[in-house]
Amino acid sequence: MHVPFCVRRCDYCAFVTWEGRESLAEAYVEAVVTEITRARRAGHLEGLETVFIGGGTPSLLGAAPLCRLLDALGTDGVAEVTVECNPESTDLALLGALRAAGVNRISLGVQSLAPHVLAGLGRAHDPAEARRAVAAVGEAGFSNFNVDLIYGGAGEEDRDWAESLEQVLALEPSPPHVSAYALTVEPGTPLAADRARHPDDDAQADRYLYADERLRRAGLEWYEISNFARPGHECRHNRACWAQADYLGFGCAAHSHVGGRRFRNVASLDRYLARVGAGEPVVVAEERLSAEEAALESLQLRLRTREGVPRAALPDAEGLGGLLVAQGERLVLSARGRLLANEVALRLVVGG
Fold first, then answer.
1. Given 24, 140, 151, 289, which residue has the most CB atoms within 10 angstroms?
2. Which of 148, 143, 137, 141 is nearest to 90 (CA)?
3. How far apart are CA 29 and CA 56, in angstroms?
4. Could you tell me how many helices (H) and strands (E) the chain has, helices first?
5. Are residues 40 and 47 in contact, defined by beta-carbon separation less than 8 angstroms?
6. Confidence of residue 352 (pLDDT cuts 50, 70, 90)
7. Half-sphere exposure of residue 71, counting CA atoms within 13 Å on the CB side?
8. What domains lie within the chain, and their CATH numbers?
9. Which residues, in sequence order, are CB contacts of 27 under 8 Å at separation 6+?
10. What is the 3-state secondary structure (H, E, C) of 135-161?
11. In this structure, are residues 55 and 3 in contact, taking their beta carbons and an 8 Å threshold?
12. Long-range contact pairs involving 268-276 (C-beta distance under 8 Å, separation at least 24)
């Protein structure tokens, strides 16, 4: 479920989200509930295994609207229910209500614990708020949660990244899952228009390798290029997506994948509300991959994970010196290989 509201739009963000439109939040929640209800009546919600509410900033909605969404979906028997939260809009009351509503995993958008790096990213919180939010997650009884980090922001030095990692690992409770993303310049964002703030590729590579080593020593192993977790704390929802499982997206700009058909909802908030209100379809685009296209995409997705791909999928693996590690009949990206995953993916062969 996509929640497209933010207190402030980050300078690097290219997601479909708005600031200053929270007056539409109540109408939006009811529209998403309507969309969910229609899907349930059509039998599309049987066998639900995971739920992920992302944004935007879901925590900005507050407890009652989020619980309304969860109630419409139904969380009984769902193995993993995740809600994304930002530190500035997260407190014990919200987290307690979410836990009572069936949420069992929180993902916190911390990004950095260096004040000048947060400012350069355009974030709305400070390090103290991030620490308070993590403490509240523990106090609310969540043993499964994620801390999101971004490296390569303007003004960030190697020592800033190293210190952020140390401080994150020292948080109470210590996060069992950390996502570490390289800052990406997306067209049309304030970051794209300011070349002075663009990240340095070599610096980002060094910081990724440092994070991989430091997180591993702390007991968090990589299981997807940007994701590290203690055993048993991997995100089941994301793993299912990387395995090409079926998923349904609700809300404006939400994407779905069902039975080999991919489709997306209208991206405009106003048009989404209007279409739901008029009883009209909200899906505006779709595609179907051929069997070969789907097989190639499956290899590309699995290459990003620690399960890797069959040896036959990379017949020229010996020419990719140091980028791959053989594990039985499968090939897995090395730490250096993860930096060049897209280059390796270009050499994948279906049915090799």
1. 151
2. 137
3. 14
4. 13, 16
5. no
6. low
7. 10
8. 2-242 (3.20.20.70), 292-345 (no CATH)
9. 273
10. HHHHHCCCCCEEEEEEECCCCCCHHHH
11. yes
12. 269/4, 269/18, 269/21, 269/24, 269/28, 272/28, 272/31, 273/24, 273/27, 273/28, 273/31, 276/31, 276/34, 276/35
Per-residue pLDDT reduced to its tens digit, 83-108:
999 999 999 999 999 999 999 999 99
Q: Which amino acid is at 317?
A: A
In whole angstroms, what is the distance from residue 221 CA to residue 42 CA? 40
0.90 cut: is pTM over it? yes
What CA–CA distance (Å, rounded) separates 228 from 177? Answer: 6
Phi/psi for 3 (5° steps) reads -110, 110
The token pair at 350 is 């279906």
344 neighbors 320 (Cβ within 8 angstroms) = yes
AA identity, residue 82: T
Q: How many CA atoms lie within 13 A of 85 on its CB side?
A: 30
Within 10 angstroms of residue 82's Cβ, the number of other Cβ atoms is 23
Four-residue CA torsion sign, 257, 263, 268, 269: negative
